[in-house]
Fold:
Amino acid sequence: MGMALKGSATAKLFIFFTLLGVLPCGAGNVGGQADPPSYRLRLYHLHTGEHIDVVYRIGDQYLPDRVAELDHFLRDHRTGDVKDYDLKEFDLLHDLMAKLGHPDGEIDIVCGYRTPWSNNYLRQHGHGVAEHSQHMEAKAIDIRVPGFSSAEVRDAALSMGRGGVGYYAQSDFVHVDVGRVRRW
Structure:
C-alpha cells in the first residue's frame, strides 16, 4: 500500500512539474516522436579555399537560406556565377557520407557548378568534360573525401544507385550526379 502511494505521488509530481513547464525538454516526451533528423554538409572548396559547415534540411524541410549558402559556395569559381542546385545532389552527398560511416566528415570539392562558358573552356583545353555536362545543370559535383580512397568513394556512390558516378583515378576524384544512373 505504501508503494502505491509513493508511485501515485511521483506521478502527481511529474504531472504538476510538466504543467509548470519546469521539466527538461523531452522529459515528458516518453514514447513520443523524436526530433526530425538534421541534414548537414561540411565542405572545403579546393579552388577558392573556402569552408562551409551547414545544416540545410531538418526532416523534410529544406532551409532556403542555407540552401542558398550551398548554391553560392558551389558557384562557378571561374566566373562567380551561381545556379540553384538540385536538392537531391545535397541529399546524395549527405547520404554518401553516412554510407562511408563518416556522416560529419568534410568533403573536398573539386568542381561544382560550371557555366557553359567554363564547360567549353575546359573542353577546348583537353580536360575531357562532357559537352552537355550535368555540372551546367547544377546536378553534379566532383569530390574527394579525406581519409577515403577515390575507389572507396566510387564504390559507396555506386552502391546507392542514385545517379551518375564517374571515377577519375589519375586525378583522384569522383563525379557524383543526380542524372540517370550510369557509370564511367
Observations:
- Confidence is low (pLDDT under 50) at residues 1-5, 22-28.
- The CA atoms of residues 79 and 118 lie 8 Å apart.
- The helical segments are 2-20, 64-73, 87-99, 116-124, 150-160.
- Strands lie at 38-45, 51-58, 61-62, 106-111, 140-144, 164-168, 173-177, 182-183.
